[in-house]
Amino acid sequence: MVTISIMAMLIGILTPAIRGAVESSRSFKCSMSMRNVAFDFRIFADDRFHGDRGDDAALGNQFLLETFQEAQYGIDEFWSFDNPDTASLMDSPANDRMQCPSVSGEVTLRSHAPCSGGAVGPAENVSYGFNIRLHKAEVASRRGRLRLDSVKLSSNILNESDVPLAIDVDGKLASAKRVTPVFTGPSLGTTGPLGGDRYWFPGSRHGGSANISFIDGHVASFDDPLAIDGQGWGYQTIH
Fold first, then answer.
1. What is this structure's pTM?
2. What DSSP state is assigned to residue 90?
3. pLDDT in tens, 29-47
């Protein structure tokens, strides 16, 4: 009985430490994955070094953030799987960087569709959301109504070191809002299409914090994902 009591006590002491070590390891792996994605983005955005920009080759020195996403997942014009219709992200080691180890569940990739068009899902299992203001801009129509228009990026985006590129997302919250989590960003007071935090669903899954990768390649963890110095989430490129 004494031995059993001692073992129970030791298990009680060690379990939180083990759990903390596992969580720390997952957070570190997630951070490294996001750093790799940010590194790939810097190459993709750099006119001196970028490789295949898919359909964006027609845009000259400009490109779409969504095209970069598709290249990272290997979907749409970058489809790199044997199956012509669907593929599992978990079955493709080359795409591990697009999954946070703290997110369970299989991600299904669909061919011949963009990220925003249902190529990545289900929403509940998506790990990372990319800065929606690098994807869409709110612009005023002739009648003064705000609408969303596509953003075309150039290598100039590489000068914006304090602008978020991607963040851990809560796919379940995005699903509840009936939007895809592949793009995210806070409303920041707008009354336009990005208002009401419709596209804002940070995933604070690393001890209550969210990992955020930035344009310059660094990754940081935030208890409050809005607490970013500089332009942060409010940056909007001219498109």
1. 0.87
2. G
3. 899 999 999 999 999 999 9
